[in-house]
Amino acid sequence: MSDPAIRIRGLVKRFEGVAAVDGVDLEVRAGECFGILGPNGAGKTTTIEILEGLKQPTAGAVELFGLPWRGHERELRSRIGIALQETELYDKLSVRETVALFRSFYPRRLEVDDALAQVDLIEKKAAWVEKLSGGQKQRLAIACALVCDPELFFLDEPTTGLDPAARRSLWEIIGKLRARGRTIVLTTHYMEEAEKLCDRIAILQKGKVIALGTPRELIARLGGDEIIEVGSDPAVAAEVFAALPGVAACLPDAGGFRLSVRGIHETLPRVIDALRQNGARPSRLATRTATLDDVFVKLTGTSIGAEEAKAAEAAQAVAQSAGARVKSARRDKGEATR
Amino acid sequence: MSFTDRPIWQLFLVRWREMSREPGVIFWVFGFPIVLAVALGLAFRNKPPEVQVIAVVESAGAVGVQDAAATNDAATNQAVAAAVAAIDAIEGMKAERLDVATAAEWLRSGKALLVLDPGDPPRFTLDPTRPGGRLAEIAVRDALEHARDPTSRLAVTEEIVTAPGRRYIDFLLPGLLGMNLMSGGVWGVGWALVLMRTRKLLKRFAATPMRRSDLLLSFMLFRIVISLVEALFLVAFGVVAFAVVPRGSWLDLVALVALSALAFGGLGLLVASRAQNSQSAAGLMNLVTMPMFLLSGVFFPADNFPAWMQPVVKVLPLTALNDALRAVILDGSALSATWPQLAILAAWGVLCFSVALRVFRWL
Prior knowledge:
In chain A, 38% of the residues lie in helices and 27% in strands. Chain A is of the alpha/beta class and 338 residues long. Chain A has a six-stranded mixed sheet with strand order 6-7-8-3-9-10, with helices on both faces. A four-stranded antiparallel sheet of chain A has the order 2-1-4-5, covered by helices on one side. Chain B is mainly alpha-helical. Chain B has helices at residues 7-20, 23-43, 73-88, 100-109, 133-148, 168-198, 201-206, 212-242, 250-271, 278-295, 310-315, 317-329, 339-359, and strands spanning 52-57, 93-98, 114-117, 123-125. Chain B has two domains: 3-44 and 164-359, no CATH class; 52-148, D-Maltodextrin-Binding Protein, domain 2, CATH 3.40.190. Chain A binds chain B through residues 52-55, 73-74, 77-78, 80, 82, 84, 86-90, 92-93, 97, 100-107, 128, 144, 148, and chain B through 5-7, 9-11, 13-14, 17-18, 21-22, 199-201, 203-210, 363.
C-alpha cells in the first residue's frame, strides 16, 4: 500500500497548560475506516480538529497524504470532507442551496443532486434546513462534506444525539463511503458504532492512546470473547470468580461483576457452583458476546456504556420535543456527563 | 467555472436569502425607518401652535402673601377680569382662573405655561427652561400694558415662513437615513457574523478551501447593495410623503451611501471579530451605536453640544455621514465640498477593516 492517508507523530495539544492530547502516534491507512473512541474529554475532538487543520498542535507532526498542513492548507482542504460535531447550517437555506454553497468552495466537485442522492436527501432538496429532523440535518452535513468528492472524511461524532433509526441510516451511508474506497476517520463514544463501522480503532483516554487494533483484536485481548454478567446476594468477593478455570478477567460492574470467559458451556456451571459454595444466590445472571465496551471497562475500569445511556436519554428527549435542536440535546448530554 | 458557481456569488446569495426569508428583518430594514419618519413627521409637523394656557390667580396679590383675606374683593375681581380679558385677546392664548394652589400645580405639570397674579404690581411665575415661557410672559405683559394704556402698543406686521428645506422633517430625514445606514451596517454585518460563529459555521467554512476574504467581501458587497436600496426607499418616501426632494446630485448620494456602507460594515466586522456569543455581541453593538444615536445629530443638531465635545462629536462616523447627507440633500452641495466628512468615513472604514482582519476569530 502507498503512503498512509494520515500520519501522526508525538502529537501534543495543551490548553493553558492542561494537555488535552498528550503524545499520540497513529497511522491511518488509505481506504480504511478508522475509529477514535473515548469518553467525553478524552481528546477525540481536539485530535480530529488538529488533523482537519483547524487547530495548531503544541508539539508533534501531522501529515495528510504525506503533506504537512503548513504550506499546503488550500490543497489539503480541497481533498478532505468534514462534518464537525456541532455545525448548525443556515436555517433559512434549502437543502440544495446549502450543498451548492459548499460546492462552490471546491475545485473538484460532484453535482449537487449526486451528493444528495448519496445521503438519501433528494426528496428533501427544496426543504429549508430548519424543517429537517436531526438525522436529516446530519445527513445534510455529510452531503456538504462529500460534495467535494474527498479522498478522506473526518466525521466527528456523526450520530451523537440521534435516535436509533436515524443512527442506522447514517451507518448505512458511512458504510457506502467505505465501500467506495474512501478513507474515513470518525470519532464516537458508541461502542456499537465503532464495532460496526471501523476497520481499526484507537481508544483514547486523557489524551493518550490506550489501545489500538481491529475490533476483533481488541476484544481478543480480554482473554475471552464471551461475557458473564453476575450479581449475587450476598455479595461474593472478586477472587472467588477470578480463581475459576476459564475466567480470564473479573471486573466490577454495577452491583456485581463482568466475567470475561472462554468456553462458556463449562465456565457457566462453575460460576453457579461457586455461588452456591459461598452460600449466595444469583440476583443477576446473563451471558453475551464480548463488545468493545468490555474492552473499555477492562482498560479504564469504568464503562463508557454509562455515558451511552445518558446520551440515549438525551436523544430520546430530542425525538420527543419536536423542533428541539440536536445541539441542545448534545449540550444536555455534555453537562450530564461532565 | 460559471459565475453562479463562484463562492463570492453563493455567499452573497446566502446573505440575500437569509434576509429576504426573515420577515422581521425586512421590517427592521425598511419598515422601521418609515414608521419613525411618519411618527416624528406627524409629531413635529407644521401645525397651528397649540393654545397656550395662562393661569390667572383669582385672589390677586395672594401669591407670596400669607394673609389672603387682606385683599379687597371688588378690586381683585376687577383686576382678574381685566387680566383674563387681556390674555384672551391675544391670539393663541387662553386664560384660566384658578386658585393659588391649582395654578402652581398647573404650572408644575405643564398644563399652564405661565402663572399671572394680577395684583399690583402683577407678578409672573414661570419655569425658564420651558420653551415659550419667556415669550408668553412678554406677550402677556404687553397686553396688560396695552389694556392700561391703549396708545402704548408698537404696530408691527409678521410673515410666517414654512418652505420645504426649513422644517423639522427636512432636518430629520437625512438623520434617519444616516441612523439606518449605521444600524444596518453594524447589526447587519456584526450580528450575522456572530451567529455564524456561535453556530460553528465560520469554523466549518474555515475547514474548506474557501478564501476567507471572499466571505468578508460578500458581506461588504451585500451591505452596499442593501444600503443603496434602503436609501432609495427612504429618500423616495421623503419625496412622496413630506416633499423632501434632494437638491444635490443623485450620483453623489449613491457614492456617499456606498462609502458609508463600507465604514459601518467595517465597524460591524470589528465589533463581531472576537465576540463569542450573541449577548456580548449585542452589548458591544449597543455600546458602539448608542452614543452616535445621541451625539451625531440624528434628531437634533450635533452643534448643540458644548464646544469642548465637538472634536469628539465631529470625528464620529455617523456625524460625518449626517453632515454630508444634509449637505447633499438639503443644501445641494457637491460631494467634493464634503471631503472632510468623506475622509472621516473612509478612515473609519480602513481602520476597522485592518484591525478586524488581524484579530478576527474563525473558530
